[in-house]
Design a protein that fits this description.
The chain has 216 residues and is an alpha+beta fold. It contains seven helices and four strands; from the N terminus they run ααβααβαβαβα. Helix 3 runs antiparallel to helix 6. Its EC number is 1.13.11.79. Pfam families: Nitroreductase. InterPro entries: BluB, Nitroreductase, Nitroreductase-like, Nitroreductase/BluB.
Length: 216
């Protein structure tokens, strides 16, 4: 008999380094203005494409926002939404919120939006008849894959969620079948840390992993 083929194995050293990568991945809000080296964006998108997707549909779509006018409009959308969010807090939480730097729109050299093409034909509908939302989940997995690949290159990624999706969709002029997933800033962070910024600022703490496990 032919021997059973052996797959790739990862030793303890690699696993320890992977844990370090996961630990040092941060949602970055403060960037240097240094431009990204040529080919960086394409390389990261290629890495994102290694993420799993339902039915191998690969529904992710990356829209890189380079036009100054469009960037300014996105910033206006953020400022409007941020003011509304601030008004929803009071007392100490309002003061904390006002001190948080929640966007990297001024300095990040690269900005992009990620969409899910819900009309995608690739994959022939496999796996999403009963759970069509798995298309969106697939795109989020691609984002996380890109996030880790960026961190491995010394880059930081910031997910800007304080936005009105309709406002972003309007300014980027994308097909109607594209569902907005998120808007991101990419660049070199001004500082690196293994603790989330919101935890350092006293906004929230990481929960105990045991607290999210339910056994049946």
């Amino acid at each position: 008999m032919w021997p059973m083929p052996q797959g790739k194995t990862f030793d303890a050293g690699f696993r320890a380094e992977l844990t370090q990568l996961l630990t040092w991945r941060r949602d970055v809000r403060q960037f240097r203005t240094d431009p990204l080296p040529a080919g960086t964006v394409e390389r990261l998108v290629q890495a994102a494409g290694l993420a799993p997707s339902v039915g191998l549909s690969q529904p992710w779509r990356f829209v890189f926002v380079e036009d100054v006018g469009r960037r300014a409009t996105v910033r206006h959308v953020f400022e409007t939404c941020n003011a509304t969010a601030l008004a929803g807090y009071s007392g100490e939480k309002a003061e904390q919120y006002a001190r948080l730097k929640l966007a990297g729109l001024d300095d990040a050299p690269c900005q992009f939006a990620v969409f899910c093409d819900r009309s995608v034909l690739q994959g022939h509908g496999l796996g999403r008849l009963t759970m069509p939302e798995t298309l969106d989940y697939s795109v989020v997995l691609a984002v996380h894959t890109l996030w880790l690949a960026a961190r491995a290159e010394g880059l930081g990624l910031g997910w800007l969620s304080i936005l009105d999706p309709a406002g972003v969709v309007a300014v980027l002029d994308v097909p109607e079948s594209w569902h907005f997933i998120g808007y991101f800033c990419l660049g070199y962070p001004t500082a690196e840390d293994d603790t989330p910024a919101l935890e350092r600022a006293g906004w929230e703490q990481r929960c105990d992993p045991e607290s999210v496990i339910v056994r049946r």
